[in-house]
Design goal:
156 residues; alpha/beta; Aconitase, domain 4; 6 helices; globular
Amino acid sequence: MHGKGKAVCLAADIDTDLVIAGRYLRTKDRSLWGQHVFEDLDPKLAPRLKGSVIVAGKNFGCGSSREQAAIALHEAGVLAVVAPTFARIFFRNAINIGLPLIESNLNCIDGQIVSFDLSSGWVESGGKRRMVRALSPRMLDILKAGGLIEYWKGKR
């Protein structure tokens, strides 16, 4: 599981209410969530997310345990999220929908290329490669399958 994209820098303590505002949760149209991701933080941010790697501060995904937050990021085209720490429920929700999360403390420069390889356990930005905490083999399999549902379909 590897990839690369342009960095989008965010602060620490980004909660799920900032990822996708509650007013959009009345719809089941996931593409709408992707269009309105981070709207209350920065209304111009959503269009920049396709093909990006979010690099954030600690405690990304804190707040409510709504799985729509991870889905909204995935629908917006985010390739991965890098942060020193994640809220545990958000972490599992993201893995379950196929969104890679990387625990690392990167210095972020907006637009700089961030590369990662979760199978080998590294993330790279600005020419500096850092080893990252390894995901379990099952989590890697879930990500490779495109999420938990696809993973289990492949097990049939």
